[in-house]
Structure formats: C-alpha cells, structure tokens
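[Archive record]
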Amino acid sequence: MNTLTRRSVAATGAFALAAAATGIALTSSPAAAAQTDVPRQPLPTEFTLAVPSDDGTTLAWTGAPDRSELREYPSPAAAADAGLTPFSLIPDANGFAKIVAGGASFGYCLYLGQTTAGTVGAGISKDRCGVAASNWTVTDGRITSPYGYALGNETARVDGTAGLAATASATGADFGIETGFADAVPPTTFDVTSPTTNDPNDRAVLRGRTAPSSTVLVTDRRGSSLVRGTVFTDATGAWEAHIDSPPRGVTELDVLVTVSTGQTVRERSWGTVSYGAGISAASDTTPVGVDGTTSISGTGDPGAAVRVVTGGRADPVEVGRDGTWTIDVTVDRAKRAATSSVVLEMAGVGGQRTVVPVAVRAASLDADVVFPADAAESAYVEGDAEPGSTIEVRATDGAAVGTATTDARGHFEVEVGAPDASGRKDLRVVERSDGEVVAQDDVTADYGAPVRILSPSTGGTLTPGSEVVGTGEPGAEVALELGGKTVHTIVDAGGEWSARFLDAGDRPFALTIPDALRFTERSKPAITGTGTPGAVVRFQPTAGDDTGHTDTTARPDGTWRIAGADLRLTVGQRYDAAVVQRPGSADARTERVRLESDLRPITVTSPEAGATITPDHGYVTFSGTASPGDQLAVRVPGGDRVASTVVRADGTWTIPDVLFPQGQHTARIVGLYGDVDVSFTVASDTGSQLRITTPTEGSTVDADPDFTNPGVRFSGTAAPGAYGGIVDLRDGTVRGFQVDAYGAWQQTLPLREGASHVRVTDAVNAPVELRFTTRWPGR
C-alpha cells in the first residue's frame, strides 16, 4: 500500500469532497479517526473521496472491503482527471449546507437514500437538491444529516441519525467515510393550531417552551423557512410562530422545529400541520357538449371558492356546506383538439391553494361536401370523426338525409342526394356516441346554378315544335316533360340549354360530350349522346375489347347517358375508349372518346416551406392544391395520421387546426396518388419561451418513488404567472402547474416505465413535447 505523510486540515470550514460513484452505502466505514460513537464494520461498496489539504494539494482516499490507500494530487482538477468527481460544501439560506457536485452551478447534490436491501445510503441527483435528505449540518468537522432519511410523511431512523462524516483533526488523521449513530440532539415539544377558515390570514400557529434566549427555526421537508422574520424565545423560554399556508395541493404539512443558540443546535423535532381537504374532482375526464361546455364537479372545503385558471371560462362557484361543488366551463378550442385540459383552483382552509387539472374530451367532427365531376350525380358528405360513432345528416328543417357509421379510421361518407332546382342545400352533420349528440357541423351542398326556364314564360303558349330555352349549371342534364313525352338535353359550357319536343325520335348516333375527358378516382364524368330509341349503347374502356364494359339503352327521345359512377376506370391510365350502338350487330355504329386521369401534384401553399410561424397555441392550418376528390392526410414522418380532408372539386384543400409543439417540424401530406413534405418552425406565441429544462430529450430518467408525489420531476421556464399542465401522451394523465414570478415552473408526473412522451402546455404559448425513457429504481 502506498503511504503519504499525514497533513492537517481545518476541522471546520468548506470541505471539498469528491465521489466517483453514486449509491454509496453509509452503513459503515474504516476507522479513520477515533470516534467512539461510530461502529466499525467492513466497507460494503467501493468508492473514492478527495479532500483538499491546507497547502492546496488534494488528498484522495479510495477504499474497498479488501484494500485502501491514500494518495496526493496537486489540485482538485488533477483528482478529477484521475476519475474523481469534485464536490463542494455550499452554505444554504435555510441553515443547512448542500454537498454539490462540481460547484454550486452544477446543482447535483449528495442526498441520503435507501438501497434495495433496506440500508441507508447516499446518491447523487439533480432533482433531489430540494428535498430534506440533501440538507446537512457541519459541527466540529463532522458533516451529518440533521434528521435522517425522509420516507413519505414519516422519518426512518437507522439506530439513530444516519449521517455522512468527513473527519480531520489538528494532529492529522486519515480521511474517510463513516456513519455517525448519535442521538445527540434532544427533541423539543410544541403544540400545533391548524387554521379553520378560508381566510388566508388565518395562519397555522406553533407554540412551545424551551431554553430562554434561543432561536427557533421552522422549516418544511425541503428545508425552506415557513416563518416571517426570526422567532426568539422569551425569558421563560416560551415561543410562538405563525406559518404561511402550505404549497399548492398539500393538505398536511410536515414541519421541522429546530432550537439553537448561535451555531449550536439544542433541540429538534418533527410535527404536522393539518389543512382542509383541498379540491378534488369527481372524475379526471369529462366530455364536452355540442355547445362547447362541460360540467365538472367534485369535493372541497365548505365555503371555499373554486375557479377556472386555464383551459376555459366559467364564473367561480362556492363549495357547498356538504363539501360538494359543480362548475360549468366553456372549454377553449373545444372543436380543435380531441383532448385538452381544464385547470381548476380552490382557495381552501388557511388560504391554501389547490390546483387540479381535469382532462376534457371534445368530439372531433370535420365534414365537407364532395361533388363528382358528373354534375348529374349525387354529392356526398365526407369527413372524419371518432371511430365507431354514428353520423347523421339532416336538412335544416330536420328531415333525415342519410346516416353512416365511422370506420376504424374514423372516416365516413353519406350520400346527400342528386342536385335539384334550388342550387344550394344547407345540411347539418351530427355525431352521436352511445345515442347522445357529442358534436355537430353545418355544411352547404352548393350544386351551382339552379335550373330555370326562360322561354316560354309563365302563361305562354307551348307547342311540340316550340323551342324551350333556359339556364343551369354547365354539364348538368335537364329533362323536360310534356303530355307524357320526355326530352333530355345538356347544359352547355355557357350555362344555357334548349330543346324541342319534336327532337324526340330517331337521331344520328353521336356523342354530346367532348371527345377528350379527364377523371379522378372519385370524380368521373358521364358519357352522353344520341342514337336510336331503344338501342343498346355500350361503353368499352379499350377499343376492340369489351372487358369491363358498361351498357345503357337509348331513351324514347333518342338520348342516352352512362353515369360516371358506372365507368370502370383506373386512375393513372389513359383510355382510347369506344362507344358502340348495337354492339355485335351488322349495323353497329362506333364513336371514339379519350379519357385521361387528372393527376395533379400535391402542393402546400401554407405553411410555406422553411417558414417560421407563430400559430395560436400551436394550431397550424395546412392548405394547398391536389387532384379533385383525393383524400389527403397530415402525418409526421414515422407517425400516425394527424388529420385528413378531401380535395374539393376545384382542386383546393384545407386541413385546419393541427397541433404542433414548438420547434422544427417536417409534416408529410399523404394522398392516394403521392405525397409531399413541408418543413417549418413553430415559434412561441409570445416569445416567453415555454421550455422543459429537465428531463432532456432522449435521456433515461429515474422516477422518484416518494410516497406522497411519485413520478418524474419536470422543471422549465415560461411566462411568469401563467398556468400550464403536463400531459402524458400515452395515457392522458395531466398535472397542472403555475409559473412563478421568475419564470420558472416545476411539477411531478407519474409515468409508466419505458418509453415516455409528454406534452407541456401553458395558457399563452405553443406547446413543447419531449421523448425520453422512464426507469423506476428497484423494479
């Protein structure tokens, strides 16, 4: 074993410690200095410590059950280069000290914990700097834990007070880790008077009696002082302290009362201050009605005020004498997000403020009217809603038009009938779930120009030879009836039509459509023409091949029509088709027509590629052009569909209100005939920089198993005073928070072990999302 001349260091002062590993068991240590109250047992785990000497060099001690050695390094940096992690002993304003890795700026603290074997040990964590287990006391060169390992609302003691001790003496002693078991500080006694009203001035009162001319400090588990000013005992030793209300959501506050004179601790004891029950919602999820409102109920302190702080609007309500409350909330953006949250706050007993987030489920219904290219065919309402829901389409007078059930993707189609003379048809689309209306949307089927007869005028004379003239939607078919006789005609490109009843009868076989037509999957034009009444007219997609043919019969007036919906065409192909009258006969007649699929590339006009946008709360609207009738969906590459729509007959499309968090994104617009990517950046709505500081993207995080608030601890920055929430995107769990006056926030969210995906929102910014891995120690 290497040896080194022993050097002395000051017995008190700012020691600098270094540990190369976490989870150091503190059940025993080698005998580095004579300490009669420290049991001597073999060291169970290997670790390394370093302490600077008085001449600036650093002594590093390494130990294991079977070996130990003392080495000298010229500086803490050299010790760090050798694999040691430097620590500093930083005084804290609460009367304790923190053992901080790498200096105060790093913020990784040494704290007491409990190993899987049930022994008390130490660990290093950034998230545990604020807990009681990271508070230490320095007395006569010994660094000790003031009250042991805090476990939930109890204090676990292992044969007394477990502590970490770095020993030194003026005569020069070896440095090492040892556990001090010494109940040297006697307990103090005090009475607690809890507040009984909702008045914030009704504060809890602690009263006790101890040694005269003493200072009394009252702290919480984090070591934060709970009193205003300094509390002193009088000549008889009596003292009284008024403490503020507990943090949000805490109904029982554990307090530590420490009695001291100068730097010496005389007495120390724990106590509990009870507050009201706080606010509690009856359910963590409520549905949003058609009018955008939801009713939330729960329990609380009688007489306390319950109000909405974010996520909606509502008049405050008062908790009844029976301890129950109900509040009707108009939810923000109820029709834009399938799930969101409403955060409620109650000012309870003693001014205690409890925040409760409630998830709200708003039915998502997006409907649009789609028209085929054939103006004579039926339009239909198409869209997306919750999978498995019932869709009803009704006219404005309440008459039923059609129904459908959404498929597994949430898609539906309802035919709304052929065009009529009105030109427009206003429709109401209703979504039902379990028989109840959960959402509705109003759409208009605009069939274009209504059919009108210009000549003869009303009351005029009409004979079989008279010409009937009128207007209508270009491409629409007009049927005229007179005395049991019917004649058909097509509205021309200028919106005009004409016909004579003498036209009925034999006509030459010809097409009354252009000889070149374009079509899409959903929009196929009709094939129309004239011929011999009663004759069979066949459409053959490929000339000379009647496979997939479609037949019709010429009407008595000599006109015929094959509906576009009956054409068996494949998008992406071109057809030089044949239309044959009396196919297979000696007097068969043939006309030619060319049909070519109308495939337009998908374009995105908004958001612009590479643009930085500041959308309202992160809701982005996409728009552009594509093939009419094509169904488009917005996807994040590698992810599921976010939202979808159908391209209108004019080739334009819009997908509104797609939620994106802050940051750079590449969205993919996917259609039946192709896809296109658009990259953009979502910026903060207000520039207040909603951020998640911890955890970090892609990291592996150990959840805190604390009994009162288990889960992963989050922290970040946002607009001062704003309310927000953290949402587990895997199961919908929500936890609310308020940003403090310095722009900081923190909250704990219970997460399942494994891959985690969370979204943080506040009342003013686009949200922030984070992916990481959650790990539960000891599982």
